[in-house]
Amino acid sequence: LEPTCFESSEDIGGVWRYTDSTDNGRVSVYRSVITNTSKEMSCFSDFPFPEDFPSYLPHSLVLEYFRMYARHFDLLQHVRFQTTVLSVRRRPDFTSSGQWEVVTETEGVRESHIFDAVMVCTGHYQEPYLPLASFPGIESRFKGQQLHSREYRDVEAFRGKRVLVVGIGNTGGDLSVELSHVAAKVFLSTRSNTWVMSRVSDHGFPCDMVGTTRFNHLLEWLLPSALTRRIRFRKFNSWFNHTNYGLASSKSSKFKMIINEELPFCLLSGTVVLKPNVKEFTESSAVFEDGTTEENIDVVLFATGYNFSFPFLEESVRSTIDDNRSLYKCIFPPQLEKPTLAIIGLIQLTGSIMVGSEMQARWVTGVFAG
């Protein structure tokens, strides 16, 4: 197989290539981000992280790893930078050839290419998910600032302010903790049961090294789900009782897990205040579903995630991709006559997306090669 990679920006790294700017449309991680998965469980199978790298990495070292990988395998010769993909369409003879016509633009010049197969590797951190309709008053009455976590870079703009963070995923937890160091007050609004884990597990080992084992997966497969949940909840509560903190109850079967070492202390010290879902906004306050109100809110920061978006795919293909459950093995659109289009990375894993994407890519290249 002979690969050609089109990259819209001027360099590799994707979201891990940090930028201070939020105006160029490219999503990047925030300045203080640290990986939630360890280097031991996140490396590509043919290229381990350097031994002198720490187990959990800042964005600069993740980017350096990608550069080392690209140099080692001489990958940049296959990449065309500053090239935007405008459309990906089936050729008229697709039912027999499986080929695709790809239209790109580089410095204002459009080109058309014919490919035997296409892998879409744009990820799902492109289009912010902002459910403003679920928060009456946020657009019509609220006078303060509102923004999505995509626009967040560091704490300076929030110094001395009263901040409401909406959403308690990994990003919402991280930003709440970081903002608590400089903000006058931070409120964290959540509507889901959330279990908080530490990156550091038994005897100081990374938690994913301890938890992600064949033996543990075998136990989950053999034991009843109610029992495995009970074991898991007991393990989580051995660090601190989540019910006492208002985070999660072991009676609920619906829950999410986040990684955050500092959030429990912030809740205990009152620098972050946990609140339920927002019912509505007034000019300067937030009214919550439990009837409480927090006044003088300066900023509402939505850590509500992203929508996946593939605007370049032809409509007949794009409209069938509701989420990865509509894809065969979370990769292939099943309605196509030929398996020559693959969506890589549209998955949520308990471990590293890098490892999962590699496994997907290895299988897809085998399918493409016949």
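The above is record 1. Record 2 follows with the same two-line structure.
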Amino acid sequence: MDSWIHAKAQPGAGRSARHLLVGALLSPLAAGLLATLVILWGTALFSLLTGPEGGWGLIVLYVVTVLALPIVTAWFVHEIGVLQRSRFRHLLGVDIAEPSWTLRSTARQAAYHMWALAVALPAVVLFVAPPAARWLARRDSAVAEDMLGPTRIEVLNRRLESLRSSRAEVLLAADEERRRIERDLHDGAQQRLMSLALNLGMAREAITEPSPAREAIVAAHEEAMLALTELRHFVRGLHPAVLEDRGLDAAISGIAARSPIPVEVSVDIGRRCPGTIEAIAYFIVSEALTNVTRHASATQASVDVRRHGGRLAVTVRDDGRGGATTRPGGGLAGLAQRAAAVDGELSLDSPAGGPTIVEAVLPCG
């Protein structure tokens, strides 16, 4: 059966008999109460259709009864379903998940209650016949799993929701880990490397006479400065601190300022999106502008980030030569997968001769 049925019982004769006996007591009581509710509703409806006798108070009572009793009956059907699932869980060890509150699930549970009533009479007779009791208990379990539990569509929807939740948790954990690595590098290796570069710079200024020692210090200083620059780029690529501190507008403006070609930036998102979504939007813009600089032969580019309800739209456009593709394993392909992981979309439109347009739509609830 479905994974939402957590255990599949193989009951012994004693447990089967107790299960059937409790069902034989519960089912007629539930059926009697359901029948009473249905009779009351039918009587009230018949009185309204044939012309109620009495004053307005009685008419109002009939109307309230006709309108309210279906809701009460549906609630009662679900509550009896709770008792029946509890019976299976405690007496047979069969854990049946609770279905959603829909008309279909209510009808299915009501149908099971009718089945349980049909089982009640032979259950009393078979109480003294252990083999038959086991067979009837297994049959009752199979019907209950099918009719008291969620439908296959509900099971699939729950699995899908579970996968979405797990996927979001993985992305959040990955972003948190990137933030931790960024902080560790910034506060540790980057600070020590900066101190080394400063000391080498001071030594370079102190030794003015040409000598092999000065040449070695100059070379070491230049290497330290280059390593510091590369480390800063690496840290910024992990998770830019400005994104967390000042938001998407400032972070994207920083990317544009470092670009060798003019980039027009327009950001209008109102309140901030979740950190994971902002990070994906940031890296989409960063990767797109990097591709513009390296491959597009463009003279200018633009970045537009706007919020439309619960969606964040990111558009990067350039006037380059076009012909770009999202090759497997490339930066944009990886970002497209990351956008899809949060139920977003990334598309590339790059005809030969340009322009190239990278568009992404991300959830920003």
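The longest strand covers residues 301-308.
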